Amino acid sequence: MDVSKITRILAVVFLVCGTVVSAAAQTSVRIGGVMTLEGPFTVLGQEAVRAMEMAFEEVNYSVAGKRIEWVKESSDGRPDVAVGKARKLIEQDKVDILIGPMSGGEGLAIKEYAKSVPGKTILNGFSAAQETTLVNPAPNFFRFGTDGAQWQAGLGSYVYDVKGYRTAAVVAGDYSFGYTQVLGFMTEFCAKGGKVKEKIWVPMGTKDFSSAIARIPDKVDAVYVMFGGADSVNFLTQYYQAGGKIPIIGGSNVTEQTVLSTKGPFQRHMIGIPSAHMVADGIEEPAYLEYVAKYKKRFPDGLAAPSAPFYGYYVATKAALKALAQVGGDLSGNQVKFREALAKLKLDTPTGPVTLDENRQAIANIFVTEVAQRPDGTLYTKVVKVMRNVNQTLGQPRDAFVARGVPSRDNPSCP
Amino acid sequence: MLLRLFAEWGKMARWTLIAAAIISYPHFAPQFWVVNIGAYAIVLGIITLSLTFLAAYGGMVSLAQMTVAGVAGYTLAILSSHAANVGSAILPWPWALAIALGSGTLAGTLIGLVSVRTKGISLLMITLAIGMIFFYLTQQNTTLFHGFDGFRGVKAPIVFGMSLREPIVFYYLCMGVGISLYAAITYMVRTPFGIALQGIRDNPRRLAAIGYWVELHQVAAFGVAGFVAAVGGVLSLWYHGGISPGSVGITAMVNILIVAVIGGLGHPRGALIGALLFVLIQNFAIDLFIRERFNTVIGLTFLVIVLFSPDGLIGLWERLSRSRKRGLRSAPNGANN
Question: Does the domain spanning A150-283+366-403 belong to CATH 3.30.450.40?
Answer without folding.
Answer: no
